[in-house]
Amino acid sequence: MIVIRNTFQLKFGKAKEAKAIIQQIREKEKGSPMRVLTDVTGPFFTLVLEFEEESLSTWEERQKNTLGMAELRPLFEKLYELTLSGHREIYNLI
Question: For residue 48, how many other CB atoms are within 10 A of its CB?
Fold first, then answer.
């Protein structure tokens, strides 16, 4: 089992807008359960999307399918416009 964390550093004041976009994506994409985390401490306006998958290959296939969904493309583009930077971490779940 692996845990994937996609961390987005959002533009100042854009967390509420980004959370609304993530909710729309969740409603359209019925993939693996996703946890949505926001900062309490650390850099302001940080948004983390956390997933658990059976393996890297399972995650890669789901990622390919999700990013290929035409109806999600405008939502991803809106989210990217709100983002200054980001990174991904992948962990083994023990």
Answer: 15
Report the run of H or E that residue 25 belongs to, with start and end: helix 15-28
Domain limits, the chain: 2-92
Structure tokens at 46: 């940080």
∠ CA 40-44-45, rounded to 5°: 95
CATH architecture of 2-92: 2-Layer Sandwich (3.30)
* pTM for this entry: 0.88
> Which has the higher per-residue pLDDT, 33 or 36?
36
CA 54 to chain CA centroid, nearest Å: 18
34-46, pLDDT tens digit by residue? 899 999 999 999 9
